[in-house]
Structure formats: C-alpha cells, structure tokens
Design goal:
313 residues, alpha+beta, Structural Genomics Hypothetical 15.5 Kd Protein In mrcA-pckA Intergenic Region, Chain A, Pseudouridine synthase, 3 domains, 10-stranded mixed β-sheet, 4-stranded antiparallel β-sheet, 8 helices, 26% strand, globular
C-alpha cells in the first residue's frame, strides 16, 4: 500500500506508478491497471485517474528481471545543464543536441534523470514539455506540482510562444509565412516512428500550424557542393511530433542535417565541413510565470557548432 504525498497530488495514475515502480516496464504497469489489480482507496481506477494527496494506492506484488533490476540500480550519471532561469518554481535550461529529454525507446536516461541525480535534495523535478533528441535549446522543468500543471495548461491552450531557428535548403519564398497542413503519425516496417503531411479528410490527421519568417539567406556555393540556404525563425502554434521538420520538408526546404526527413547526400557533404547535427534550435520561449503571472521571455543563443554556419543577414 502506498500513500500519495502532496508532491504527487494531481498526477495521472499511470505516471505515478511509473515513477514509483522504478525499473518496471511501462507495458506491465498498464497491464496491472487494466486488470484491476491496482486500487485507489479500495476502488478500481483507470490509467488517467488523477491521484490526490492522502489516497491509498494498493499495488500487487511486482517482479522485475535481474537484468532490469541491475539497470535500475545503475542510475543515470549526475549532470547539470546550462541554466537560463531558475527560481523556486521552475528551471529553464539550455539542452544540448544529442541528449534525450527522458529515458525510454532504447535510451537509458535523459535530461530529467541526470538532473534528478545531480540534485538529490530536490523532491520534485518534472519535464513541462519535450524536445526531440537532436534539437537543442530551451527546455522547462517544473520544481513544484502546481507549476507543472500551470505551465502544461499554457502549452495545451497555446498560450506560450515557441520560436525555433532552422537552417533549410534552398531560398525560402518570403511570402510563404504560414503552413497549415495536418500531420499523420505512422510506424515504419522496422518500428521506427515517422510523421507525414496528410489531407484534411484523414481521420487520423492532426491539424498543425507553423509560422515562418526568413532571417537571412545564403547563395549557392557550387565549388563547395552547397545549395542556397535560408535561416528561418519558425513559430509553432501546435506542438505535434516532428512538426517543424515535416512541415518544412513538405515545402521542398528540408532542415539541414535532418537524418529522417532531410537531404542525405547534402548532410554527408556538410558533415565533412563540420556540420555534425541537425540545424534546429529552440531559440525563444514566452510564457506566463506560474506564480506571478508575469510574461517571461527567454532566449537561448545558437550553440557555436550551429552559429558558424549562419548565413550573414
């Protein structure tokens, strides 16, 4: 029997159990919820039931394999990240490219697990939103349950302003400022997740809106085997998986260095010139502070490995 504490109040039952049953596969967590083996105050509950402080959660005996147990005993390495803003309610950090935001899908650990290890005295640290592993830039972490729900509500209600910097192939037409195309998630034969643009009548399509502003362009450099390129400020009004990458590629202007939707031959040529990653960076974030209500604007400058490839304005 587990009693829900104040810091866990308001969490979905599945998320509460995943945090509590460290090392237990998510599939097993969902199985014991569906089977009715998990009870809240003696009653059955579903995965999306919200737990409240003082609730008594009954759990069945859970066995995990020696391999999983050994992995759970080897925690993520402690790591701090560059901080853009921190107070008692939240942390805004500058995530480097190549680091997942959380463990799962073949990744043992991510930013949040490393941050928790670096701050053992912090009772509550939770991701407010996500960034692709290959994307750098601003990432918010809540230090209180109230801040988490307040900030997530803003993301859900589209009250935040999220602007990215992306370098794309070709000269982006200055008059193409809005991409309003639904996106459809699917799995490839090897099980890898992909996203594509679809039609308005696709029942599985999700409306997705991206705003684009040209910041600078560079002419083609045939002697280096490089096409014309454009640096874009991209603001997303919806936060779909791979939204920016797929929307820009669908217009014939893929993000430079994108290994899923980009120009693979160009990527190889650029790697030889020092471009080792995708040029997508979460540059600016605007939100209302969860405690004061004040409008906050944060900027994460381009990391050096991207800044050197920026076309002059």
């Amino acid at each position: 029997m587990v009693e829900v504490d104040e810091d866990s109040a308001g969490q979905r039952l599945d998320n509460f159990l995943i945090r509590h049953l460290k090392g237990v596969p998510k599939t097993h967590v969902y199985r014991i919820i569906r089977s009715g083996e998990v009870r809240i105050n003696k009653g059955r509950a579903s995965a999306d039931t919200r737990v409240e402080a003082g609730d008594l959660v009954r759990l069945p005996p859970v066995r995990i394999s020696d391999k999983v147990a050994e992995k759970a005993e080897r925690p993520a390495p402690a790591r701090e990240f560059p901080i853009l803003l921190e107070d008692e309610h939240l942390i805004a950090l500058d995530k480097p490219a190549g680091v997942a935001v959380h463990g799962g899908s073949g990744v043992s650990f991510g930013v949040i697990e490393q941050l928790r290890q670096a701050r053992p005295g912090s009772k509550f640290l939770e991701l407010v939103h996500r960034l692709d592993r290959e994307t750098s830039g601003i990432l918010l972490v809540a230090k209180k349950r109230s801040a988490l729900t307040h900030l997530q509500d803003q993301f859900r209600e589209r009250e935040t302003g999220k602007t990215y910097l992306a370098l794309v192939t070709g000269t982006w037409p200055a008059n193409k400022k809005v991409i309003d195309l639904p996106l459809h998630k699917y799995l490839q034969a090897d099980g890898e997740r992909r996203v594509r643009v679809t039609t308005a009548d696709d029942p599985d399509g999700m409306r997705s809106i991206t705003l684009v502003k040209v910041r600078s362009t560079a002419a083609a450099r045939p002697e280096q085997g490089l096409p014309a390129m454009s640096l874009l400020e991209v603001t997303i009004k919806t936060g779909r998986t791979h939204q920016i990458r797929v929307h820009l590629a669908s217009q014939g202007h893929a993000i430079v260095g994108d290994d899923k939707y980009g120009d693979f031959d160009l990527n190889k040529r650029l790697q030889k010139q020092g471009m080792k990653r995708m040029f997508l960076h979460a540059w600016r974030l605007q939100f209302n502070h969860p405690a004061s209500g004040e409008r906050v604007q944060l900027i994460a400058e381009l990391p050096p490995e991207l800044a050197e490839f920026v076309p002059p304005a």
